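ok, trying the design again with the full structure, not the truncated one.
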């Protein structure tokens, strides 16, 4: 067994980060603790999904028209119940629920706002392919009492933290509070997330592109030209690129964060705004990628500068290595 250089648990890391803020009340640390507990509870079910009657569908569809799987519903309820009584948040919003989620009257409302996609990639559940939970944390902007829709419709640049839990070959908790990106790997034998990827930096340029080419015929000619360019041979620019795509944004974005390259879910002629949700998927992932030295875009500007107007709105999303996303934008804007 290779012992960690520094045996640092997520709990200890959160505590040490809090010491950097003399005026910290501990609410933010408490929020992250509760979120890490929720992550372990979801992991416990995800890791044995094939053994219990939790696979399959609920015969419901969510706001985005996705079929709701039993594990989706379990993850959604687990995150909400882990977060609703700690006094850290004043309101929540989930990709699985049409409206904002209020804190029960019997509990204190806190100063933070939590948006989450409880189980990203649920179309992959029955095939045992990587899944994720994605979250964004904001300061409340409403004066007090119950949180409001406006608390949830803040631009991504207002995020105070963002992260994801990825349920893959191992389970990792990856997050940023605006001071770099750090990854913690779950050690099931002790039930702790241990620091395994301190201060993750994305390569400036990669050689992997990650998008669903099944939609190629519906893409703009500019995007088609960009993808065709990546497939041409040119040693100087390390082309052709390899294509990797698992259909779980958390998994594809995590690989892009570590290996570099570009992940995209573009708009197309049928769905000009694409499929991915601005508030639950694109904002948190854009914050993480930019904090790791990468770049995000909706084709025109950083995802973080888009002002949400509705909870479940979609956005085209391009994110990854700075040089790769910049080149993609040049093609999209007709400059190449
Ligand atoms: P497609 C999963 O359902 C998801 O919301 C994202 O996690 C993923 O990137 C995308 O949809 C996959 O969509 O159309 O390629 O199957």
């Amino acid at each position: 067994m290779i012992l960690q250089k520094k045996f640092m648990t997520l709990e200890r890391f959160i505590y040490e980060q809090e010491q950097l803020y003399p005026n910290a009340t501990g609410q933010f640390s408490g929020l992250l603790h509760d979120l890490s507990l929720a992550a372990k509870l979801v992991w416990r079910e995800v890791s044995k999904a094939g053994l219990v009657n939790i696979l399959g569908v609920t015969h419901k569809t969510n706001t985005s028209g996705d079929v709701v799987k039993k594990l989706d519903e379990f993850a959604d309820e687990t995150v909400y119940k882990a977060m609703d009584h700690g006094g850290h948040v004043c309101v929540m919003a989930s990709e699985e629920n049409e409206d904002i989620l209020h804190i029960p009257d019997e509990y204190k409302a806190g100063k933070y706002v939590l948006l989450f996609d409880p189980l990203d990639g649920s179309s992959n559940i029955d095939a045992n392919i990587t899944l994720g939970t994605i979250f964004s944390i904001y300061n409340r902007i409403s004066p007090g009492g119950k949180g409001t829709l406006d608390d949830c419709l803040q631009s991504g640049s207002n995020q105070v933290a963002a992260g994801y839990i990825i349920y893959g070959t191992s389970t990792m908790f990856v997050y940023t509070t605006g001071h770099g990106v750090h990854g913690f790997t779950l050690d099931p034998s002790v039930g702790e997330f241990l620091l395994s990827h301190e201060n993750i930096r994305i390569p400036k340029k990669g050689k992997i592109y990650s998008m669903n080419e099944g939609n190629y015929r519906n893409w703009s000619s500019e995007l088609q030209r960009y993808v065709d360019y990546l497939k041409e041979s040119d040693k100087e620019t390390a082309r052709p690129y390899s294509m990797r795509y698992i259909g779980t944004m958390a998994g594809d974005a995590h690989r892009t964060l570590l290996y570099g390259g570009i992940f995209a879910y573009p708009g197309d002629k049928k769905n000009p705004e694409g499929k991915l949700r601005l508030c639950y998927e694109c904002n948190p992932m854009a914050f993480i990628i930019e904090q790791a030295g990468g770049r995000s875009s909706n084709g025109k500007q950083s995802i973080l500068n888009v002002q949400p107007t509705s909870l479940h709105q979609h956005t085209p999303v391009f994110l990854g290595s700075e040089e790769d996303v910049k080149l993609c934008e040049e093609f999209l804007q007709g400059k190449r």
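Keeping the full-length input from now on. The longest helix spans residues 27-46.
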